[in-house]
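User: Show me a protein chain along with its predicted structure.
Assistant: Here is one chain, sequence first, then structure tokens.
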Amino acid sequence: MIHSNDDLAKLSAGPVDDVTSTGGDLKWQDASGEGSKVDSVSRRNEVLTPIGGRSEEEMFICQLAVSLHQYGTASHELEDVLSACAQQLDLEAAFFSTPTAIFISFPQSRENRTVLRRLSPGEIDLEKLSAVHQLVSRFLDLQCSVESARIELEAITEAKHSFSNWLYLVGFGIASGAVVSFFGGGHREILVTACIGLLIGGLELVARSHQDFGRAFSAVAAIMASFTAVAVSRLMPGLNSDIVTLGSLIVLIPGLTVTMAINELSHQHLASGTSRLMGAMLQFLILAFGVAFGRSLGNHFFETIPPLSHPVHGLVFWACLFIAPVTFAILFRTRKEDVALVVVTCLIGYFLGKFGSSWMGTEIGPALGSFGVALFSNIVSRLYHQPPALTLVPGLMFMVPGSVGFQSLQALVQHDTLNGMQSAFTVLFVAAALVSGLLLANVLVQPRKWGKVRESLRTP
């Protein structure tokens, strides 16, 4: 029997296993104080070997939980996959997932064991997430054993991405430049924003390998983007520094995180949804502070010139419309063979969103776009046996209210309280509209239900 989050408190009364640091190695510490060391390779892969009587099945569940979490799986989807795998193994287990931790309880184990894994918030990695879902599909169809599944999970962790870091860097810059055309930027804004985006993309690659700098990365990027935009506007009179700043930081603005948080809340995963929403708000505040600081610094050294930008039209706009989805596919680490599907999904979301906005208003219209994106993603998921997130996540990037949230905080920083609060309400309303579209699409064409294991495959 698989328990839900509501039963976790009842099941976690037994000893709690934890991972504690012992110099260069890790020790799995149980309630009795005994444990065994795990070498640095296992620590790096976040894979623990069976020790202290722990079964191979339990270790597989823990390893799978970490992999799904680190590749950007929402809490309700993560728990569905883990529950299906535990059911297939006739293993009683309960799961509780948040953006920074996973609790797994095994009430039928000898020690009534509960495992806690403290993790950093995962980054969306659609290529590895797709590989993990394919592995889970084969496992549920009895096409691979627990031991081979664990080995394959380790191989997925160590595998290189289809797109190199250099291509990721270029994609970061081109994505920043392309989206400026949607904000009314002209040719100069697109060029300058792409150059600043390249710099920010380089800083992000550095932040991934330097933990201390990674904590301050968002603030540093916001300061650099706003200061550089003001400085360049002095060299290029008429350049709209506000649009350039927004476009340069568009990849860092957590609009998608807000939408994921509202989606988790709608699935009654209140702890995960609330903590994710608070994390997004903090990211908004950090970016707003950085932009305000950089802009003030720039205005102190350079004379302010009114913007005179002219929005792009025709061929340039359509080129940006088709290029942006390709860069989103690169930034979300999509497989090369799935780029075409990502482009189609993004275009569906864009055109349905525009039509819905003109028909029902800018607050309600995004629901139609998200409905089309989710419907297409669910169909693709069923046809190709892939996770819906493969096309759903990039498709939502055209509609998430990240830019509106950023402008809301900017208005509040500039003491424009009325417009700031109105924009903040718009962010939540648009996010709720997007989630409503997702839920309606799931009713019409349901994504794969991992919890349904075929009775013919179950052991008697």
